[in-house]
Amino acid sequence: MYFEIVLCIGLIGTGLSVPWEAAAKGGNWPETHQRLINQTVQHRTDIQLIFLGDSITARWANVGRDVWAQHYASRHAYNYGIEGDRTENVLYRIEDKEFDSINPKVLVMKIGTNNLGDCTAPEISIGIYEIIRHLRAKLPNTKLLLLGVLPRDGNFGLKVEEINKIIAKFDDKKHVFFLDMSKHFSTAPGKEIPDLYDHDKVHLVLKGYQVWQQAMEPLLKSLLGEK
Question: Which residues form the signal peptide (predicted)?
Fold first, then answer.
């Protein structure tokens, strides 16, 4: 990697999970993880497009369901978002059967916002890099559409911008394709467009999912090989 690992040792020995080391969670998380494994097994031959991420991705299933039904259902898309997921949780899921024996055309990934509170931008970026590395090993024929972390409240604006500048370097124009949608969701770092966000200034309302779809569509269409 082009940045130094030495910058990212701050969490080691603190008792906190490390963004680049796979970790499971408690609560309802194991049940949701198992449901996604079952989804993979049940639809193994049908899965062509995957959305992978945290609650913002998971809520395509409710808040964004109308946009999903119109633009993604016919493309054999499947949602692999889990509420509250961090980079280390996604790593665990990849290692533990969620993507075994499938061959989707494209995987859309957006992750990292839940790491913002206790990790540096380089630490989060290494976590994202490790996810890419594991996905490439598991899904060698799949094109990865890596989305930048979405803008959110002012406290994290500059950190989000820094992460997106780092992970943009992971775009190799062959297997990994980076898309930063920040300009569609904010007017400046830490200044999100209110009409697109829920009251928590993190999650999206329906209009936010419409903007996501519109911003991503040209690149997604190309990666899927659609005319």
Answer: 1-17
| Tokens encoding 39 | 């989804």
Q: Write b or e for each residue in 114-134: b if 16 or more Cβ atoms lie within 10 A of its Cβ, otherwise e.
A: bbbeebbbbbbbbbbbbbbeb
- Smallest CA-to-CA distance from 23 within 104, 127, 125, 103 is with 127
From the list 137, 131, 109, 105, the residue with the least C-alpha distance to 223 is 105
CA separation for the pair 127, 20 (Å, rounded): 4
Q: Which residue, among 98, 109, 102, 105, has the nearest Cα to 30 in the 3D structure?
A: 98
pLDDT in tens, 138-186: 999 999 999 999 998 778 999 999 999 999 999 999 999 999 999 999 9
At residue 61's C-alpha, the angle toward residues 60 and 66, to 5°, is 75
Number of helices (H) and strands (E) in the chain: give both, helices first: 8, 7
Q: Domain 41-224: which topology?
A: Rossmann fold (3.40.50)
**Distance from first CA to last CA of the chain, Å, rounded?**
35
Residue ranges of domains in the chain: 41-224
What tens digit of pLDDT does each residue of 7-40 get?
444 444 444 679 999 999 999 999 999 999 999 9
- pTM score of the predicted model: 0.93
